[in-house]
């Protein structure tokens, strides 16, 4: 009976820290969506909201890490439970960094608005990449909640598409700057925005890799898609 009681407490603690991770994910997802909105429509007050959320994201990351440390110290989990706790810790870090990228986008939007040249920049060319990056974070959170390895694999494939979008945008932006050197400074801001979007996709991919680590017990970081697919079979 005492063992069952302890097990029930442990399950409750796991569920609680998992819920905090989803809470953090919701905050970061909102940051990204607002940053995307601010970028596509150049709305400064929305960019300000993204920046204001940063302190809440950072505080929640610290709280989750503290809670994880407490669970590990008290329960000394092994096997899959330990993998889950380690994965939550790493997913927390990836979400916080994705929030950092959203914050960078918001700051760049404010910079471009203040420069006054933003209307002539090809920001609309980033629409697909912004939608993909935002969607990948949402999918990674849903997949993590369900430990869905199939969706995790599809996220990795979609991240490759974001990388290709980024490469294509860089080529267009270089051409744009060569044709009109007056836009170089503002175009560099837009380049940093594109890079931030690519990194958001990378963080979603990292979370997807953690799902496979929890379920299969194999670290698939830096592994080829072919190897990951064989791992899941």
Task: Describe this protein's structure.
- The protein has a single domain (2-232), classed as Methane Monooxygenase Hydroxylase, Chain G, domain 1 (Up-down Bundle).
- Helix content is 86%, strand content 0%.
- The protein has helices spanning 2-41, 44-75, 79-115, 127-146, 149-179, 184-216, 225-232.
- Helix 1 (2-41) packs antiparallel against helix 4 (127-146), helix 5 runs antiparallel to helix 6 and helix 5 packs antiparallel against helix 7 (225-232).
What's the CATH superfamily, by name? Phosphate transport system protein phou homolog 2, domain 2
How many structural units, i.e. domains? 1
Indicate the CATH architecture: Up-down Bundle
Number of helices: 7
What's the layout of helices and strands?
Layout: H1 2-41, H2 44-75, H3 79-115, H4 127-146, H5 149-179, H6 184-216, H7 225-232
What attributes characterize this protein structure?
233 residues; mainly alpha; Methane Monooxygenase Hydroxylase, Chain G, domain 1; 7 helices; 86% helix; globular
Summarize the structure.
The protein has 233 residues and is mostly helical. The protein has helices at 2-41, 44-75, 79-115, 127-146, 149-179, 184-216, 225-232. Helix 2 runs antiparallel to helix 3 and helix 3 packs antiparallel against helix 6.
